[in-house]
Specification:
By secondary structure, the chain is mainly beta. The chain has strands spanning 5-6, 15-18, 23-27, 30-35, 39-43, 46-53, 62-71, 75-84, 87-95, 109-112, 119-122, 125-126, 128-129, 138-139, 143-144. The radius of gyration is 15 Å and the shape is globular.
Length: 156
């Protein structure tokens, strides 16, 4: 059994950490990613965001798109659509080509919104997606909140 983690014990600024969690992401029966070498970003009030090594992602399913966003901690993010069997999940994945020095290890890692795919699992458990259209947190039974992202929580 996993040890419970409260998102209120996570740091701010966020911390990047290695994980050995087994992550599998699938959509329409196609495996997008399968890894035991993800990184996790942990930040106060947010469930973990998993970053998956490019080497363990079927990058033929990721189509880069125009536009970017800026994270005060990680830098400038690039985005991609996930395209499976003709279905396009717009801006469902992102990565940091040139992250800030504190997050340099996420080069060649990709994050995605678990709520946009049919299945995202951690250690075999289907995750719940963090609420809100901006956040990419992965909620499992051992991650406790309350979580930022729901209506009324933006100012937390």
């Amino acid at each position: 059994m996993r040890t419970s983690e409260s998102v209120w014990d996570y740091p701010r600024p966020p911390r990047l950490e290695r994980s050995s969690d087994h992550i599998v992401v699938a959509h329409r029966g196609v495996v997008i990613a399968d890894t035991t070498g993800p990184l996790r970003v942990l930040e106060t009030s947010h469930p973990p965001t998993y970053y998956l090594p490019f080497a363990d992602v079927d990058m033929t399913l990721i189509e880069p798109v125009e536009g970017s966003t800026f994270c005060e901690w990680k830098g400038l993010a690039s985005y991609g659509d996930i395209v499976v069997g003709g279905e396009r999940l717009e801006r469902a994945a992102w990565w940091y080509p040139e992250p800030t020095p504190g997050f340099a290890n996420i080069v060649n890692y990709l994050a995605l919104y678990p709520g946009q795919v049919d299945s995202a699992t951690v250690e075999g458990e289907v995750v719940d997606a963090q609420e809100g259209d901006f956040y990419g947190g992965w909620i499992t039974s051992w991650i406790t909140g309350p979580f930022k992202g729901a209506p009324g929580t933006r100012g937390w």
